[in-house]
Write a structure and sequence with these properties.
The structure holds two protein chains of two kinds. By secondary structure, chain A is mostly beta strands. Chain A contains one helix and 25 strands. Chain B is α+β, with helices and mostly antiparallel strands. Chain B is built from one helix and three strands; from the N terminus they run βββα. Classes of the chains: A mainly beta, B alpha+beta. Strand 20 of chain A pairs antiparallel with strand 3 of chain B.
Chain lengths: ~375, ~55
């Protein structure tokens, strides 16, 4: 086996690369292989701001419409991609309209890049992409408030074929913008799929503007039934793209749950958490997060109350909606209306039996 | 037609609950960082009025 040295990287005989940035946990992107979809389990989303997979958000503020979801179309070595389909075209975007895929990296995970200082580190973005359209596509990196941004371009040469892209970006050393190093957004990554002129700038240079993409980039939202797939997204320190960092699935899921504590039942009577009957019909439950969250949740979305049950001295089925009561970064607390049973008894909050799909998503932790 | 019902948490915080078209429900504190609260504000801005909280809540 042979290796070669390329400045800040080691290239192995099989073409894989290790960069000097980090050995292990190189990739600042969470769920870059698009495998984890706690919200939808692969079902399509269509609304502005929805998450087709964990940590990746679809923006569509145009006169068009879209559908996006986790898909099994993927390049070799991957099993999933994020697929966007334009379902109503908007071929004449106004200056302030935009669409695309957004991913925020928490500042605690970008602090070592020292952006906004003279010591700002270079980063390299890499990803696999496929589209029914060809040409020059765009995207950007931005700071939290959007007064520093770096538009970039990449070219898709062949339609309907996955291509591997890399973009190396010198860290932002100047400007008056602030790059947060706390639990808010440190770096915002955007893949433009049609962006108006107000949010499009010159590629390859830092600007004191809120640019989402590059000027004259291909508009996927502009063509009916146009498709765009992306996976293997990696942002790492250094000037060379290393091989995609596959983290263990459980690790990647835990990373996602910092931003979305969730429960998805897989069988009848799946235990969710402990609970007690505060009255004959009001059940209060304490849901311990598997991972401490970025910030305390501030709400929840759950399947109908009838998809749940309480098992105390006797089992009773849910009959009303779940209502969020409060949370810390460690625990959430909610109430549900149940069939009448004995007040004061403790027990378990469970999925329904026989099994029906049930889900609890704690909200407010995403960036 | 979407409708929200107001309630207060045991610690007196304002919150709202809505039942979605698919039978799921969404509840949230009046926290500006919660996306569902932002959607609720837009709904209010359209001239809608939520159901008041139950007595004693």
């Amino acid at each position: 086996m042979s290796v070669s040295y390329g400045g800040d990287s080691i290239v192995f005989a099989d073409g894989s690369v290790n960069s000097s940035g980090f050995i292990g946990h190189r990739n600042r992107i969470i769920n870059g292989a698009m495998m984890i979809d706690q919200r939808n389990a692969g079902t399509a989303v269509t609304t502005d701001g929805a998450y087709p997979v964990d940590r990746f958000q679809a923006y569509e503020d145009t006169d068009g419409t879209y559908s996006a979801q986790r898909d099994t179309t993927a390049p070799a070595g991957f099993v999933n991609s994020l697929k966007w389909t334009t379902t109503t075209a908007d071929s004449s975007l106004s200056a302030s309209q935009y669409s695309g895929i957004y991913h925020a990296i928490e500042g605690l995970n970008t602090a070592d890049l020292m952006w906004g200082t003279a010591n700002a580190q270079t980063v390299t973005l890499s990803f696999w992409v496929r589209s029914s359209l060809t040409g020059t596509f765009g995207g950007s990196l931005r700071n939290n408030v959007g007064n520093r941004s770096y538009p970039f371009t990449y070219t898709i040469s062949v339609a309907n074929t996955f291509e591997y892209k890399t973009v190396t970006i010198a860290g932002d050393t100047g400007g008056s913008g602030t790059w947060l190093t706390n639990n808010s957004a440190g770096i915002k990554l955007f893949f433009g799929l049609g962006v108006g002129s107000n949010f499009s700038g010159t590629a390859g240079a830092w600007a004191g503007n809120n640019y989402l993409s590059a000027t004259s980039a291909v508009s996927v939202i502009g063509t009916l039934n146009a498709t765009f797939y992306i996976t293997g997204v990696q942002l790492e320190r250094g000037s060379t793209a290393s091989s995609f960092e596959y983290r263990p699935y459980g690790t990647e899921l835990a990373l996602c749950q910092r931003y979305l504590p969730a429960f998805n039942a897989v069988a009848a009577s799946d235990p969710i958490c402990s609970a007690y009957m505060q009255s004959t019909t009001a059940m209060r439950a304490v849901f311990v997060h598997k991972v401490p969250t970025r910030v305390a949740p501030t709400g929840l979305t759950a399947t109908a109350g009838s998809t749940f049950q309480f098992s105390g001295t006797a089992g009773v089925n849910g009959s009303g909606s779940l209502s969020f009561l409060g949370a810390s970064t460690e625990v959430s607390w909610f109430v549900a209306t149940m069939g009448a049973t004995t007040a004061g008894v403790g027990g378990a909050f469970l999925s329904q039996s026989p099994f029906v799909a049930c889900q609890i998503l704690l909200t407010g932790c995403e960036i | 037609m979407k409708m929200y019902k107001l309630y207060k948490t045991p610690f007196g915080k304002d919150a709202a609950l809505t039942v979605n078209e698919d039978g799921s429900s969404t509840s949230f504190l009046f926290d500006e960082n919660n996306p569902d609260y932002q959607e609720y504000l837009k709904w209010l801005a359209e001239g809608n009025t939520p159901e008041p909280a139950d007595q004693g809540e």
